Amino acid sequence: MKDRTASSSTTEKEIVGKAAANVIEDGMVVGLGTGSTTAYAIKELGRRVFEENLEILAVPTSYQSEMLSIEAGIPLTTLSQHPVLDIAIDGADQIDSDLNAVKGGGGAHTREKVVSMSANHFIVVVDESKISDRLDHYIPVEVLSYSRNLVCNQIKTLGGNPTTRMATRKDGPVITDNGNFIIDASFGVIEDPLSLSKELSGCTGVVEHGIFHNVSEVYIGKKDGSFEIIS
Ligand SMILES: O=C(CO)[C@H](O)[C@H](O)COP(=O)(O)O
Fold first, then answer.
1. Is 159 annotated as a binding residue?
2. Confidence of residue 190 (pLDDT cuts 50, 70, 90)
3. Fewest CB within a 10 Å sphere: which of 53, 56, 123, 214?
4. Membrane among the record's keywords (predicted)?
5. What's the whole-number mean pLDDT along residues 49-63?
6. Which domains, and CATH codes, for the chain?
7. 18 CB near ligand 1 (under 6 Å)
8. Mean pLDDT for all residues in the chain
């Protein structure tokens, strides 16, 4: 499992987090993702709200991004009030050359998918380590707790190796912001992300999986302090 603490890539994450935050303009309604890279975007947006009187509303994707946004002074709204967002900004665990992404390392991919699918433009912010020719990252799958064994069996039938994600500071499984379990499913190198995506969506008991096909642009932070945008 990935270490979610700050790492040597902190600087690259900060560069792209800030760069994405600087795309946001007055009057926009923005989706705010979850994770350490998006946290830099949230911090920068808070600075712009405070210092530049930037007028925005934001929809957070998790308790983490809600708490960070409140702390940063960003006014929040909901998808009920604003069903269509201008831009969503979020991190990713892996992204391939066709801009298929794996998300959910932080367990927030269900709301992240709902928020990013509600946005006209979806910017993903990553450091170079997240870029890969082909996806081989485990796929987080949020499931109803009641359906855990059934989903594990369906994942095995699809050729995957399922593991229930366990909490680190509590005994037992991780419980998502939606009150569900997460199964991390390894498939090795994924030859066809779109068909795996459809197969996982078709499994009974699955709430949402972490393969995303709706990325508009990827901001990639480099070790030399620069960043590249691919779309
Ligand atoms: O999908 C996510 C949370 O569910 C995160 O965006 C993803 O795990 C990347 O996190 P980080 O920016 O900390 O590397």
1. no
2. very high
3. 53
4. no
5. 98
6. 10-132+213-223 (3.40.50.1360), 139-209 (3.30.70.260)
7. no
8. 95
Half-sphere exposure of 45 (CA within 13 A, CB side): 37
Q: pLDDT digits over 61-84, tens only?
A: 999 999 999 999 999 999 999 999
Pull the structure tokens for residue 203.
């499994």
* Ligand 1 touching residue 16 (CB < 6 A): no
The rounded distance, in Å, linking the Cα atoms of 206 and 58 is 28
CA separation, residue 194 to residues 19, 96, 201 (Å): 29, 12, 11
Amino acid code (one letter) for 78: T
Cα gap 104→102, rounded to integer Å: 7
Do the Cβ atoms of 219 and 231 come closer than 8 Å?
Answer: no
Q: Is the beta carbon of 37 within 6 A of some atom in ligand 1?
A: yes
Catalytic residue status for 112:
yes
Catalytic residue among 12, 44, 66, 112: 112
pLDDT of residue 5: 44
Closest listed residue to residue 44, CA positions, set 74, 60, 21, 73: 21
